[in-house]
Amino acid sequence: MATHTKEEKLKAFGDFLDVLDTLRVKCPWDAKQTNESLRPNTVEEVYELADALIAEDQPNIRKELGDVLLHVAFYSKIGEEKGEFDIADVCNSLVEKLKFRHPHIYGDVHVNNAEEVSQNWEQIKLKEKKGNKTVLGGVPSALPALIKANRIQEKVQNVGFDWEEAHQVWGKVKEEISEVEAEITNGNKEDLEGEFGDLLFSVVNAARLYGVNPENALEKTNKKFIKRFNYIESKAKEAGKNLKDMTLAEMDELWNQAKKL
Q1: Tally of CB atoms within 10 A around 206
Q2: How far is CA 153 from CA 81, 104, 157, 212, 221, in A?
Q3: What's the predicted TM-score (pTM) here?
Q4: How many whole angstroms separate alpha carbon 147 and alpha carbon 226?
Q5: Which of 11, 111, 145, 179 could form a disulfide with 104 if both were Cys (CB 3.0 to 4.6 A apart)?
Q6: What is d(CA 216, CA 51) in angstroms, rounded to the nearest whole number?
Q7: C-beta contacts of 229-237 below 8 A and 24+ residues apart
Q8: Which among 255, 259, 260 is positioned nearest to 234, based on CA atoms?
Q9: Helix (H, G, I), strand (E, B), or coil: what is residue 58?
Q10: Range 55-72 average pLDDT
């Protein structure tokens, strides 16, 4: 695909906004949408984009990016109708924020690497007018727990609250495993839940320290497990067997076959 010029990109974006304006007036479904009604769909669209990204499905990434862009523009259109802001305000605010948060590009700050950029970013956000008053104040409460744990650890790392060496985290992981085992022995379900949480948090921390995004890693394992289990199920059906009637040894044999595919 040929690279489009800036003028072509601007025309495409303008055409898209024109279509949205038309649909907002002439389509009964589009006309009745509100921030509240769109929100669940927006969450779904972002997850669909995440699926396409982890699968590296370029045609689907392009499609899902379009769906997410539609929602950004739709909320901006609703804001315009309320007389509060429009898509230009959204873009202008973003440009202003990006320039402010990149003083090593638009100012006189010097950085040596991406890690220093991240550290500066967190410090700058604390100084912004109406910005976060605390280091963890900007972590959305609605984030899924795994993603939230990783984001919390990234933020505190940027202000120096971190292990000096990555290998040191394994002592903490082993400690948390021991505490889980102790609570299993004690039989206190509530305390056991808390210790499992601590263990998961420490494993997320370990992944971060070794440059692995835990959300992506776990999702890839989810997909791998689904593929292998689907193989077991399909082979069982071919043999006329019900999974519930199969022994664990029989399923393990099929699992090992699936691992070789």
Answers
A1: 19
A2: 40, 24, 6, 13, 22
A3: 0.70
A4: 21
A5: 111
A6: 10
A7: 229/255, 229/258, 231/257, 231/258, 231/261, 232/258
A8: 255
A9: helix
A10: 96
C-alpha torsion sign, points 17, 19, 24, 29: negative
pLDDT digits (tens, 9 = 90+) for 6-31: 999 999 999 999 999 999 999 999 99
To 5 degrees, how large is the angle CA 41–CA 143–CA 164? 150
**Percent of residues, the chain, with pLDDT higher than 90:** 75
d(CA 205, CA 166): 9
Mean pLDDT of the chain: 92
Amino acid at 255: W
Residue 160's nearest CA partner among 135, 134, 130 is 135
Return the beta strands (E) in the chain as ranges: none
Lookup result for tokens 């700050």: 109
Shortest CA distance to 86 belongs to which of 37, 24, 9?
24
Distance between CA atoms of 207 and 214, rounded to whole angstroms? 6
Element (H, E) at 185: helix 169-186
Cα distance between residue 124 and residue 118, in whole Å: 10
Bigger pLDDT: 130 or 70?
A: 70
